[in-house]
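TODO from last week: model Protein FAR1-RELATED SEQUENCE.
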Amino acid sequence: MPCATFVGINHHRQSILLGCAFMSHEDIDSYKLVFRTWLEAMGNVHPDAIITDQYQSIKVAIAEVMPNTIHRYCICHIFSKLPLYLSGVRPSKIARGEFKSMVLDSITIEVFERKWTEYIARYNLHTRNWFNKLYSEKENWVPVYLDVYSWAGMLSTQRSEGMHMFFDGYITHQSTLRIFVHQYELAIRAKHEKELEAEYRSKGFQIVCESRFKWEEYTRTICKWFESRGILCYHILKILSHKKIDKIDERYILTRWRSDVIRPHLNRFHQVGYPNMAPEYKTYKSMLKYFDMACDIALGTSVKVQCVKHNLKKMVHDLQN
């Protein structure tokens, strides 16, 4: 049976496993069931964005179950199909290279649109349905349309494929389901220990920078590096260096990359997996219930919203002190 994995990235740029599912079928209903079950395990918190292979069944399921999640196709999955759908085109190697360059190097939507029109005409691809379908879904895979969203540097499902290779060290094709569950826990524990090790290294050693920069104002650049990765690009840093600004404003040091943020999940381990979670997580969920309830009651009434904000700020301050 195919094993579908949910893989994310932590603040050390390590791959983290957010869940997996065995699927006997890969139709729309099966994917909807998988996504709904996964969301339940995630406390019904929908991801801001998700990258998958280019399958219509997955697209339909995500649109229904996670309508506000930005869905991106794995660009490597699309590129891997070029030899098949450019068959008969000569010279094929040059055609594949031009296609990749057109997609990856277009810095504005206008440039991409022009290059696409020229490419289709040059190789006479007007009647090839695969290219017509790709163009109709361009906002799901072409970087210039998607770089306005944050992807933490991820463009493809390669991290998910890497996670499959990681499991090769724990399970084989002969492993039973019972053995898989046991080995799965060992694999998760190993991943967890690597994250703790990276956390220790980031806090236990001083990082020496080659250059120091200071800045107060962010100028939007055409490369969209900060928007899509959450890290300032070298264009900005070059300007800051030229202006002799040696400090970066706090607004542009995102929480997801900081090492001084409290991450309670690092102290919790789901010993037997969902739904039989560790006691700490159950306690966390019970507290979250009341936070959600307060938000639901206050929503729509400005006075109540301000009351919730005020009391939560006071509570956080009291807990931290």
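Done. The longest helix spans residues 177-204.
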